[in-house]
């Protein structure tokens, strides 16, 4: 009979849900979704959003893969809170919109399969060293906390002493240097928007592809600030309320960067073309609401693959490739790049 039913509904998520899931906290909503032919794969999702303070540690079903504990007025994460049965299989954990100010050093240590961690909208100033040790985290959201400038130079394991008591920077580093299992650090998406960084944090040794620093009180971006982030594909530096200058060569290490968002930096005094030096893969540049005058055409020399630059609402310039005449001598068609803008005078 069971086999017959699964033949009838092989691709639909199993619907029996809450009542059938064992060990579901009465105030949470637990759901098992089955996938694949004959439901060979299943995912248990547990939604404990806004169930109220004092609920943690929440017992969750065995084999839970996604857990949402957001909006629960949780103020600290202790070593035991995330260690019960069911937690070891978590792939994603949402702790956003709580009041978390303290995370004990081993709080996440049992979450060996965790890939996505959302700690956004909390009261964190720091994380202790080793918090992410041995995890296979790829996506970390720490936005809208109170992290300040930190020195991730310590990611560089060569000949560095790892301090015992450290802030977030050192914490991330220690995943590299002190990880007893010798796992490499996997974090490739890091959201640090809405914190208190005053300088671009050094993130040496983290294979980041996506970095978001929007809304931090960064005053100036210095030459070589991103030298260690050569894997970055997307960099967002939008709405930095204090940003007045970007030094030439700031982005020179970013040879894989495809999208750079510098929009809404209203205090930026001006941008020399050399600022864009080294951005040899850049395709999209967003300067909306960030520069007063026209965009210097010489900047395109630094960004040979740039396809479009946004300079404001309905103010975009884009490059198209027009095949020119066939050159017999060269043996190939000569391509001409044509720049078109929504409005005249955007480029000089
Ligand atoms: C981390 O911040 C908390 C307050 O949020 C503070 O009590 C604690 O001393 C700080 N720890 C470190 C290592 O700086
Ligand atoms: C700026 O443009 C980029 C690339 O087109 C886009 O991904 C981003 O969302 C834009 N930023 C804002 C604040 O609209």
Strand content: 15-25%
In N-to-C order, the SSE pattern is: HEEEEEEEEHEEEEEEEHEEE
E-strand count: 18
Report the helical percentage: under 10%
User: What ligand molecules are bound, each kind once?
Assistant: 2-acetamido-2-deoxy-beta-D-glucopyranose
For the CA atoms, what is the radius of gyration?
24 Å
**CATH topology descriptor of the domain at 223-234 and 242-348:** Leucine-rich repeat, LRR (right-handed beta-alpha superhelix)
CATH architecture of the domain at 223-234 and 242-348: Alpha-Beta Horseshoe
Tell me the CATH superfamily of the domain at 223-234 and 242-348.
Ribonuclease Inhibitor
- Mean pLDDT comes to 82
Tally of alpha and pi helices: 3
Unreliable stretches: 1-19, 151-183
